[in-house]
Write a structure and sequence with these properties.
With 79 residues, the chain is α+β, with helices and mostly antiparallel strands. The protein has helices at residues 24-34, 41-54, 59-70, 72-78, and strands spanning 2-7, 18-21.
Length: 79
């Protein structure tokens, strides 16, 4: 479910364009509604667990997201 709207990426390369995914709507809503809040990873982990308990079909994607977040610094160490 991709749209061809271009906008700056959230990560490196602020002058690059990328495709807008349908899921970006939810991410943008999160940023708009709660972007000023600060949370801990402990809190985030608990929310992810609760989400998976309520939505077991999303266990694999949530696990992949959690693993990706946990290993973000590992990418820097490889360079």
């Amino acid at each position: 479910m991709k749209r061809n709207d271009a906008r700056p990426p959230a990560g490196p390369g602020p002058h690059q364009e990328r495709e807008l995914y349908f899921t970006d709507r939810g991410i943008e809503e999160l940023e708009k509604r709660r972007g000023e809040e600060e949370v801990t990873f402990e809190w985030l982990a608990e929310q992810l667990r609760t989400f998976v308990d309520l939505n077991p079909d999303f266990e694999v994607p949530v696990e992949r997201l959690a693993t990706w977040l946990a290993r973000l610094d590992d990418e820097d160490e490889d360079e």
